Predict the structure.
Amino acid sequence: METVIISAAIDYNKRSELFQVMEPLKSLVKNYCKEFEIKVSEDNSLLMRITFDKKKDLEENFNNKEFNILRGSVKSLCNNVNIKINGVKVI
């Protein structure tokens, strides 16, 4: 199993915009992975967990259009963005 963790601090002024973008993206992203979870805490911390069955699934899908939009949205609407793949920081 391959796991991508995206954590970030949601910019308070862009919180509603982030939720507007995430809602339609969730269903698109779920088509390419085994599990997709989003958690937002009261202090505006964002945690996304994306799980793929195999390394091949991760490699084939993590750079597709939907995931690029997802990463770009998080990077532009949040602060302190960290992306880890299987515990290794990539951003």
About this structure: The first strand starts at residue 2 and ends at 10.
